[in-house]
Amino acid sequence: VEMTAVGEESGTLEETLGTIGSYYDNEVAVATERALGLLQPAITLIMGILIGLIVIALYLPMFSMYGGM
After folding, report:
1. Does the reported pTM lie above 0.70?
2. Is-contact 20 37, C-beta < 8 A?
3. Three-state DSSP class for 11?
4. Domains of the chain: total
5. CA-to-CA distance for 11 and 5, rounded, in angstroms?
6. Distance from C-alpha of 18 to C-alpha of 12, rounded to nearest angstrom
7. What are the b/e assignments for 29-66, b being 16+ CB within 10 Å?
8. Cβ–Cβ contacts within 10 Å for residue 3, how many?
9. SS3 string of 32-44?
10. What's the domain range around 53?
11. On the chain, which terminus has fewer CB atoms closer than 10 Å, C or N?
12. Per-residue tens of pLDDT for the chain, all 69 residues
């Protein structure tokens, strides 16, 4: 708000709004990269747990069959 007031007073409102827009575009890009940086390891961990559970579910009956022999 303050920057737009300064731009209005100095007569460079268009340039000021362009600068503000670029700044906030950059802020959104940085926030998105941070969120993806945190999300990727979490997804990898969840996928590993799911695959581990599937492997256990497949091999557990086989081990109990061999144990009964």
Report:
1. no
2. no
3. coil
4. 1
5. 10
6. 10
7. eeeeeeeeeeeeeeeeeeeeeeeeeeeeeeeeeeeeee
8. 13
9. HHHHHHHHHHHHH
10. 2-68
11. C
12. 788 888 888 888 889 899 999 999 999 999 999 999 999 999 999 999 999 999 999 999 888 888 776
Amino acid identity at 56: I
The residue with tokens 């497949």 is 58
What is the pLDDT at residue 65?
84
How far, CA to CA in Å, does 57 sit from each of 18, 36, 54, 65? 57, 31, 5, 13
Tokens found for residue 55: 């492997």
Q: Given the structure tokens 């007569």, which residue do they identify?
A: 11
Which segments of the chain does DSSP mark as H helices, in order?
2-10, 13-68
Q: Could you tell me the two tokens for 52?
A: 């581990």
